[in-house]
Amino acid sequence: MVADRTRRVEISGIRRMFESAPPNSINLGLGEPDFDPPREVVEALCHSVQNGGNHYGPSAGLSALRERIATRYAGRDPKTVRENVIVTASGSEALMTVALTLYDPGDEVLVPNPGFVLYGPHARLAGAVPVPYPLIERRKFQPDLDALEHLVTPKTRAIVVNSPSNPTGSMFPESTVEKIVEFADRHHLTIVSDEVYEEIVYDGKFSSFWGRNDRTIIVNSFSKTFAVTGWRLGFLVASKPLAVELNKIHYHIMACPPTPAQVAILAGFEAGDAATRAMVREFRGRRTLVDRLLKSMPGVRVVPPAGAFYVFPKLDWGETATDSAHALLKRGVITTPGDAFGSLGAGHLRLSFAASREKLRTGLEIVREYAEQRGAA
Q: What's the CATH architecture for 40-271?
C-alpha cells in the first residue's frame, strides 16, 4: 500500500531510542540545547503572533531576514546578497530541498560515514545512491582524500560535508576545506555543506565552504544557536541561479516558512550573539567534564570533539554498541548507537552533552557502572 521509496528508508535510530525510553530517563541522546531562547527572541515571537504576524509570507522567506543572513555571509564572499538566501522550515527541510533539486535517479552522492542520519535517506528518496566515504577514529574523523578519489565515478553528482560534525564533533581545518573544494572542482561535483553547528566551536577556527566556488550549497539552521529546535527554522545559501531552482522545490514542500518565527529570529540577530556565546561557554565546560569522565571508564576511547555538542566514544565492552545502548536505556539513560549514523559508527555511542552538568554526572555514573560490569564479565 506504500510507495517503494517508503520501504527503502527506516525510522531514525536517534528517534527510535528516544521514543522507547522509560519515563524520566536522562536524555543524552537528542541533540537539543537545554537552554531557553534569548529573551528578545521570545518577546518578538509573542509580539508578532499578537499583532497580526500570522499569515503567509514570501516563499523564500521575509526579505529583512534574508538580507540579514546575506550580510553575515558577505563576510565570506562580498558578492552575497538576499537572492542567494532561502529561509526554510528547518535544516532538515533544507536538506530535503537540496536532494530533490540536485539528484536524479541513478546519481551517486558521497555522504559521510558516520554522518547525520538524513543524508543517505534523502538521496534514496530522490532516487539517487548514497556512497559512504569513511571518517574513522584513527584519523580523528577527518576525511581521507585518497579514499574519496577511489569512490568517484561518472555518476557522482555531489559530496555532502558536515563540519562541525554530528555525530563525531570533529571539525575540518582550513587545509581540509581547501582540499575538498579542489577535489569537488576537479570532478565537477556540487558541495552540500551542512554548517548547522558553525557557532558551537571549542578548538580552532571554523572554516565555511561558502565563497570558494559556484557549486556550493550551504545548509544551516537557527535551532542550535538560538535554542529553538521546536520552531523548525533554517536556511540555504547558494548561487543565484541555483537558489531559484531550490526555491521551486522548497515551495512545493511547504509553500513558505513560518512568519512569526522569522520575525523572532531577526530580532535575535539584532540583539547580538551574547546569548549564543554564553551557551557555548557552558558547552565547553560540559565537554571537559564529559571527556574526563569517559576517559576514566574501562573499555572507552574518546576523541575530544572540536565543535557541536556530541562525543562519539569507542567501546570495548565485548558487545555491540546497540546492545550497550539498549542496556543503558533500561537503566534510564538515553544514548544513540553509533551504527545509526552508518556502518563505521559500529562500536561507538553518540552522547550529547546538551544536558545539565547534574544530568551528565548522573547519567555518566550509570554508564560507568555498566562499563565496570562489562569489564568484569
A: 3-Layer(aba) Sandwich (3.40)
